Amino acid sequence: MARFGCVSLALLMAGASLPAAAQDRTEDNAVTQAEDAFGFSTGRESIGIYSAGNARGFSPSAAGNVRIEGLYFDPAFGLPSIINDSTSIKVGLSAQGYPFTAPSGIVDQILVRPADKAGASILINGDSFGSYGIEVDGSLPINKQLSLGYGLTANRVAFSDGTDNFNHGQGLILRWRPAPGVEILPFWTLNNDYNDEAGPFYVPAGKFLPPLPPRHQFDGPQWADFRYTGTNSGVLASYAPSNDWLVRVGAFRSVFDTKTGYTNLLLGVQPDGSVADRLVIADPRNKNVSLSGELRLTHSIVDGPRLHVFHLSVRERDARREYDGSDEVDLGPTRIGVAVTAPKPNFVFGPLSRDRVGQTTVGLAYDGRWKDVGEISFGVSRADYRKTTTFPGLAPIVSHSTPWLYNGTAATYLSKSVSLYAGYARGLEESGVAPPNAANRNQPLNAVLTQQKDAGFRWTVTGNIKLIAGVFDLRKPYFGFDATNVYRQIGTTRVKGAEFSISGNVTKRLNVVAGGFFLDAQVRRDPLALGNIGPRPVGLPGHLLNLNVNWRTKLIDGLSLDAQVFERPAVPATTDNLVSLPPRANVNLGGRYAFKLANKSATFRFQVSNVFDNRAFNIAGPGVYGANAGRYYLGYLAIDV
Fold first, then answer.
1. Fewer CB within 10 Å: C terminus or N terminus of the chain?
2. pLDDT over 90 for what percent of the chain?
3. Is the pLDDT of residue 183 over 60?
4. What is the pLDDT of residues 416-467, one digit of tens each?
């Protein structure tokens, strides 16, 4: 019985598969490692119908729903792969067992673990745009209780629009186990980005899409380069004083320091490629800093076939963001494809505006599991949210709220292979920042109360194949442009949808991860909102289908082939719904060859992305577009030494 309690607590710590050692880069394979099709990434591999920036039509990252092994984390700068072993998107039944689930889903990141044995991985990569780089990851045991993990990267990255940059990163992570039941993981990362040219955004003159720009050509200005640093540091620790008690704590500091920044706008673009104005906006140095973390006490009680788990949680956030103060230069009319020759002007910056958000959330949660019967979980928390906005020369604007937040889920086992579930969640979520062409560009938007209902089933078709399907109803405020080009709330979005995931081994050699969603998204405009607001939200397709397969062939020992197919219909691109991105399908093909190189494990990975060269635009904001890549080739060689 004690063993049951210990195992249950271990499962509840992260809710994900065990992380790889720091030096095992030759084994990265998202298709074989993913538990479902809702979103998974490891190393340079990423699959699924959702991502950290888009789940069920919304962004869980922008909403503030990021976790490190289940504990709250508010990133000003994303956690780099040199210490991030994998990232999973948790929605619906896949979020079962996570205390305090969020309406927009959860982005859960698993840290790498320094190994008890010394070793390293070397990864060399490149692509047909001209990118190349090297990464070194490894472990260095210090004694039986203490191991050091390290990571180093250096890359020259060339993008499809002709821009490029140079960046390097480094990270350290310690794994200290000073006593049985105790694990302490302090970590630190630093990323530097240099000469990162500001690619163009296209704003058409009318209700049409801009023409596609020339391939891999950057018209400038060459002096409009980003320069930034991003750091993450913190500690993740756990202490199990007995089989039925667990204390976990995560404390994190995340910094995004933009030393120079630019926005490159082509305004009034015509179908023939002529441009009314090229506007370049320069930003002064600004810094975003976030301190966040969670303390969680967990107690389990085993009652025969029933397991009761109780959580007491305290979450804290202190986030500071700087913006505004920009200057701009109008470089006049031009054409797409014509190089900018104007020299860099002497920009004069104004004072910065500042936002500071302080939030403390205290909550209680229960997770009950009855063997062969079902599961039930619920959580209640109280948030103390305070936001202070300071504009130059004005008194601070303070908003304060203390909402109750709650969630509940229930699942019943109809048989050993079939279970049904239903859930409800109410959360306080952030709304991201205003897009680059807004009058209030980069300004953080207000936090909002959101709610979600969902239900579905899980069917273990065979021991290796799992089907998950569900429906959901999600409601959030809708943001768009008002009559003065300020990006603000102009209505409410209701998204009703269905989703499915099929994953597993069809045969011993064939892995399949397939999924999709179908959305009925509607906008209800605010009575005081001005302008033409269409019935569908910008950027949400009516459906998306995604198929990933990995086949270990018999042709050559160690050779596997993989394919990814993606399809979506037209997508509304403007607030009035008069312009849409056309339907798009995409196919990626690849392979990997595992072999021995000087008696060391090695993997050569090669991919063709966008096989049929289906070029298109992406939406950077309502009526604002960036160009996607056409067909390109990429690969890497990983060696475990």
1. N
2. 81
3. yes
4. 999 999 999 998 887 777 877 788 877 887 788 889 999 999 999 988 899 9
Q: State the chain's mean pLDDT as an integer.
A: 92
Tell me the domain boundaries of the chain. 30-640
- As a three-state string, the secondary structure of 73-113 is CCCCCCCCCCCEEEEEEECHHHHCCCCCCCCCCEEEEEECE
- Do residues 88 and 303 make contact, with C-beta atoms less than 8 angstroms apart? no
Model confidence pLDDT, tens digit, residues 334-375: 999 999 999 999 999 999 999 999 999 999 999 999 999 999
Task: Kindly tell me the burial class for residue 435, based on how many C-beta atoms sit within 10 Å of its own C-beta (0-12, 13-18, 19 or more).
Answer: buried
At 560, list the tokens: 């596997």
Q: H or E element: which one contains 66?
A: strand 66-68
Residues with Cβ within 8 Å of 508's Cβ and at least 6 positions away in sequence, in order, are none
CATH architecture of 30-640: Beta Barrel (2.40)
Distance CA 637, CA 641 (A): 13
Residue 27: what pLDDT? 84
DSSP 618: E
Alpha carbon distance 307, 298 (integer Å) = 13
Burial 383-419 (b: 16+ CB within 10 A, else e): bebebebbeeeeeeeeeeeebebbbbbbbebeeeeeb
Burial label for 588, CB within 10 Å (0-12, 13-18, 19+), is middle
Environment class of 94 (CB within 10 Å of its CB; exposed 0-12, middle 13-18, buried 19+): buried
Beta strands in 304-417 (DSSP E): 306-323, 327-330, 334-335, 353-370, 374-390, 397-401, 404-413
Q: Which two tokens stand for residue 482?
A: 């008002």
Q: Is 159 helix (H, G, I), strand (E, B) or coil?
A: coil
Phi, psi of 519 (to 5 degrees): -120, 140
Output the six-digit token pair for 149. 């993990």
